[in-house]
Amino acid sequence: MSERDRVGAVVRAALDQHPALRPGRALVQRAAQLRPDQGVLAAVHHQHRRAHAADVLRGVEALLRWQTPEGENVPPATFIPVLEETGLLEEVGFWLFERALQDATCWRDAGLEPIEIAVNVSPVQLRHPGFLSRMKSIADEWHRAGAGLAIELTETAVLRDTDVVVRTLRELSSAGIRLALDDFGTGHSSLSLLAKLPVHELKIDRSFVALLGAQPRNAALVEAVRSMARAFGLGTVAEGIETPTQLQQLIGLGCEVGQGFLLGRPAGPDEILERFAPGR
Questions:
Q1: CB atoms within 10 A of CB 70
Q2: Contact, 101 vs 146, CB < 8 A?
Q3: What does pLDDT average to in each consecutive run of 10 residues of the chain (280 residues)?
Q4: 220 phi/psi in degrees, rounded to 5
Q5: Quick count: other Cβ atoms within 10 Å of Cβ 130?
Q6: To 10 degrees, the CA torsion angle through 214, 220, 223, 225?
Q7: Using CA atoms, how far apart are residues 162 and 167, in angstroms rounded to an integer?
Q8: CA-CA-CA-CA torsion for 250, 252, 255, 261, nearest 10 degrees?
């Protein structure tokens, strides 16, 4: 059974046990009823991160994409809650790690320098009893393939059961997995919590980036996050860069790495290879 068929079978089985479809469930159900000749059940796209000064690829973020047999895109805001409710988010999440590793291996074999791939992890996944042991196994596979692995967590994900989460993250870090705090500045985490977390990178939320140039305070917020990261010895990535003005302001504020539609939209693995492989 192929990976796509395996994920589809898991999703179908769970949805069969939840007949009371709520809004959005029907879309996911149609996507799960895919046959091999009908297209893609779930796919992985990658949005790259760029070092501004040298236009150098600094890694990619792996993103789950879901389609119905009719080609209708199901937004994450629809399918993620369904996967959580049906208890399938863990399995689909691990499938995403597997596919991302396959892509990294293909890029390496085609001559692309090894890069880091970041994968989002939800609070549901983080607190699953088997998450830590399985992630350590995944980390071993990634290291053998010569690929860099990072996971991204929102501030919300670390605010509940903080002591347990901190222990889990420390073990993941010890296994060679880099950790990034996503949407930084939009939650309620304290500086004392940030000092405890074994994170390597802060991602500056797109809501701050979007208003650069429109509200002077937003530039001050971005600069404050950048200064805080520097004080803690952390890297920063600015999210949601969509205009040249935003890019220039971020460079002026000392943000060396960014991602967003201006720099590149999420793309399939072949498109990433086409753009960044040597001699292409």
A1: 10
A2: no
A3: 52 48 44 39 82 78 79 76 76 87 91 90 86 92 89 81 84 94 72 81 90 81 89 92 92 90 92 80
A4: -65, -35
A5: 9
A6: -100
A7: 9
A8: 30
